[in-house]
Amino acid sequence: MTDPIARRTMLQGAALGAAALAMPQMALASPADLKALAAELAKSHDTNVKRLQDWIRLPSIAAENRGYPEGAEHLVKLLLDAGFNHAEVVPTSGKPGVFAKLDAGAKRTIGVYFMYDVKQADPSEWVVPPFDGALVDKPGVGLSLVARGATNQKGPQATFLAALHAFKATGRKLPVNLVFVGEGEEEIGSPNFHEVVHRADVLAALKRCESVFMPFASQNPDGGVTINLGAKGIIELELIASGEKWGKGPKTDIHSSYKASIDSPAWRLVKALDTLVSDDGNTPMIDGYGDNIRPLTAQEKALNADYAKRTSEAAAKKSFGVTQWVDNISWEEAVTRNTSRPTVNIEGLVAGYTGPGGKTVLPGKAVAKIDMRIVPDMTAADSLAKLKAHLAKRGYGDIEVKMSGGYDPTTTSIDSALIKTQAAVYKANGIDPVMNVRLAGSWPGYLFTGPPLNLPAGHFGFGLGSGAHAPNEFYVIESANPKVRGFDGAALGYAEFLYALGAR
Amino acid sequence: MTDPIARRTMLQGAALGAAALAMPQMALASPADLKALAAELAKSHDTNVKRLQDWIRLPSIAAENRGYPEGAEHLVKLLLDAGFNHAEVVPTSGKPGVFAKLDAGAKRTIGVYFMYDVKQADPSEWVVPPFDGALVDKPGVGLSLVARGATNQKGPQATFLAALHAFKATGRKLPVNLVFVGEGEEEIGSPNFHEVVHRADVLAALKRCESVFMPFASQNPDGGVTINLGAKGIIELELIASGEKWGKGPKTDIHSSYKASIDSPAWRLVKALDTLVSDDGNTPMIDGYGDNIRPLTAQEKALNADYAKRTSEAAAKKSFGVTQWVDNISWEEAVTRNTSRPTVNIEGLVAGYTGPGGKTVLPGKAVAKIDMRIVPDMTAADSLAKLKAHLAKRGYGDIEVKMSGGYDPTTTSIDSALIKTQAAVYKANGIDPVMNVRLAGSWPGYLFTGPPLNLPAGHFGFGLGSGAHAPNEFYVIESANPKVRGFDGAALGYAEFLYALGAR
User: Fold this and answer.
1) Is the pLDDT of residue B45 over 80?
2) N or C end of chain B: smaller count of CB under 10 Å?
3) Cβ separation of B349 and A346 shorter than 8 Å?
4) Cross-chain Cβ contact A236/B371 below 8 Å
């Protein structure tokens, strides 16, 4: 879950965002409270950072079945230490989730969402071992934690926990009650998180919440912030062509010299893949795939235009290493497509011999790893059904469609208290946030924003991080830029946010 | 280089082959000579087998740049020990080759071709470490060497060397002079072997030869033998689509969420691959690819029919793990296509994330490993040029065509002295060989059968082996079936062959 464009490219001193125009005054924290909390955060800085490093050293990676159930058990301990009255591991059909409550006797209750799993990492691509929790001084950026999970999502989450520790240590009551839900399968598409959210007592607790948020390092290198009003849904799956299922071709890799008389599952996969997108590879051609797309509203179009105006196309292209967008479209059109167009992407291809040089085999099996991003009002279930029907209609019913995870898109209104409060806290700190209509990436917010809860849900947080899913992912601990908050400042930001949520 | 069909499926007591009908009587070895040689081979059995095992333990794998130049230097030593007057490493633009001569003062001179490299091996797929040279008792087959290179091609080649040692040890002169050429890049398509064969002094020596042969374990489990009258040519290459070369899409793997605005090299590869074959994946669609195919002659058609009649379709299907041939064709038609149809095969696909589960990346590069088998009168150079033109014509000129090796098809007349002598030696031992018009696999015989040499070239040898390019490749050392020759018997067979070649 990441938004490199806004994270890396917001311009300084840009014009007031359309969304910001609507901001009311908010009751924020008292200077005295913040001063005391800041002092405590400074005092316990080393302890708080070590807590994060220890968490990094216990990776949970669902795709590799690594670090379970330890990851869930460790999270429960982190929550209890931070002051939650109750915290428990919640078993699911897959990796366990976590449910916790912190009753502060406050008027309002807020939901908090964590993920304790991280993306895979290939150590050979890293400047430091990805699970050591190394602190590296990045010139111009500051002392940073360079590790898998540094910013996605353990860094921001540990920073939020540090804020809770500060309330506890200074004897302050939280301004809001908290209901916590966490999962360990976010990076494989949250296939079982609904079992956590929909467990009767968890659902009942969440129904008492006004909104749900996830700690997130929202600042870009210049200090600016993006607020995401939603995210695309996603389906991750493997398309598997095999002699086994097909009934033609070999069941294992055989010598390639007999291709003249034996069918090839690899060619079958290529032919099936070819039908899924337009010739330029950019428009999904799955029958009926986009039927339920809800057109952008006038307000959403205006927000996209403002987003394009206030962010740097050149920096975005640089961050992706591209020289042009599809069809040579404009930056505003690129932003618009990222927020409104579904995709069908090849994550990976695997068949036969994959080592150095060649090997004369006719593979018995060929696999395409696919992710499909969907927008309102498309659903994961309907899109998967349409993919299967599309393949079956063309005679590719033997190609296995193995979905590993996925969920629907999520949307939260710019007029919701959650978004208005976020904007107010940033503005009170001199930051005019850019509104992002829809994150091109995905997170399972639909479980909160969709029925039966229908709650506002989003991300909040000061701080800077980057490299989610990439080598050398980092999260700034001590910022070299005064406009960007380091660990302690970001922790204080969560306190400001909780005060603002509680005081409305 | 392997022919599983004939190797595994010849029927016992089958009708007399069309080719065999034409066999004249041949002058074979004297019983006294063979008796003495057999006794010597029995006496030095352990030494001869250990020589083979030691060779196995020194693998040369071009694709992994492993075992060079040691492999070539070791082969030179093996040749000198076996009685060659001269043997030298021959440098090439790639891995070194070997040239050697044995002047026995005989009337006739024969060329011998070896490969000292072997195919890659994944130890995790083997019952024994592939480079240990382990001897395993295979029930119903006999004591066998299970190792990479056991039958392809060190086993048969070491057996031939054992025969030369026997001549030397018993003080017998070879019935023919030998000119030897060897290479260490056969498994990557012999990209530089022509530099060895065409070196002035090597070419001059080869021009004195009547024919060239490669030691080969030709017997199937029932003792029957196939004689190959030629082999398909091959081109091995990688098709590489990349943001780097394309100028669109990312240069490295990036987060997949931006597919809506960024082009995909992986989809580009799929679209380009789609144009190379028919919808069923079985007919090459490269513009003009088959223009130069020479139709089968009436004699070749008759040989294919005889081959189909005398081999078991059921056993062939079983050996490949298939239940039907392409288009549900008959066994005779399958044999015909294997000998007369060019192919375009996907050896492997590699793009983006290839590990367990999924990873949401948009790959910056996608690679298809391809082998193309060609038949007379197609050539490797012309076929490669046509592939490049085909891609360029469709706007895929940015897709890199990286050829790693390949060469033209090879054909030797059934009426040549080489083939007639082979058949006569087998028949003298009660084996009526099946004639295979063209091996579906490949070997660089074109360097001998094509200009400027235009010599008959092929394979000869008793003995049994299987699993070339596959796990648990083996070569029988002590046969459980009296109809199948073990190491000593196969070595004696080479002596019989040399006598027959020398006595014509």
Assistant:
1) yes
2) C
3) no
4) no
Q: What is the DSSP string of A114-166?
A: EE-------GGG-SS-TTS-EEEEETTTEEEEESTTIIIIIHHHHHHHHHHHH
Q: What percent of chain B has pLDDT over 90?
A: 89
Mean pLDDT, 10 residues at a time, chain A of 504 residues = 37 31 52 96 98 98 96 98 98 98 97 97 95 97 98 98 98 97 94 97 98 97 95 97 97 93 98 98 98 97 97 92 97 97 98 92 97 97 98 98 95 97 96 95 94 97 92 96 98 97 87
Q: pTM of the full predicted structure?
A: 0.88
Where does the pLDDT of residue B99 fall: very low under 50, low under 70, confident under 90, or very high at 90 and above? very high
Q: Chain A residues with CB inside 8 Å of B469's CB?
A: 255, 359-361
DSSP state of A450: S
- The interaxial angle of helices A70-81 and A155-169, nearest 10 deg, is 30
B12 min Cα distance to partner chain A (Å): 24
Region of A175 on the Ramachandran plot (φ > 0 left; ψ -120 to 50 alpha; else beta): alpha
Please tell me the predicted confidence (pLDDT) of residue A17.
32
Q: Report pLDDT for B6.
A: 38
Domains of chain B in start order, with CATH, are 4-231+410-503 (3.40.630.10), 233-293+342-407 (3.30.70.360)
Q: Is A190 left (phi over 0), alpha (psi -120 to 50) or beta?
A: left
Query: How far apart are the C-alpha atoms of A94 and B109, rounded to whole Å?
Result: 72
pLDDT in tens, B371-410: 999 999 999 999 999 999 999 999 999 999 999 999 999 9
Helices (H), A227-375: 243-246, 265-274, 298-310, 313-320, 331-340
A84 phi-psi bin (left φ>0, alpha ψ -120 to 50, beta other): beta
Whether residues B259 and A62 touch (CB distance < 8 A) is answered with: no
What ipTM score was computed for the predicted complex, to two decimals?
A: 0.89
Q: Give residue-wise pLDDT tens across range B178-224.
A: 999 999 999 988 999 999 999 999 999 999 999 999 999 999 999 99
Q: Shortest CB distance from B259 goes to which of A343, A352, A468?
A: A343
Report helix, strand or coil for B201.
helix
Judged by CB atoms closer than 8 Å, whether chains meet at A352 and B351 is answered as no
Task: Tell me the C-alpha distance between A443 and A411, whole Å.
Answer: 11
Partner residue facing A326 (CB), from B263, B337, B470: B263
Alpha carbon distance A181, A478 (integer Å): 29
What pLDDT score was predicted for residue A28? 65
* Cα(A29)–Cα(A502) distance, integer angstroms: 10
Angle CA A104–A109–A111, to nearest 5:
115
Q: Do A369 and B358 touch (CB under 8 A)?
A: yes
Best of B258, B282, B285, B407 to substitute, by most chain A Cβ atoms within 10 angstroms, is B258
Euclidean distance between CA atoms A313 and A276, whole angstroms: 29
A293 to chain B, minimum CA–CA distance in Å?
A: 14
Q: How far apart are CA A172 and CA B52, in angstroms?
A: 81
The side-by-side arrangement of strands in the sheet containing A343-352 is: A400-407, A233-242, A365-374, A343-352, B343-352, B365-374, B233-242, B400-407
Q: How many residues does chain A have?
A: 504
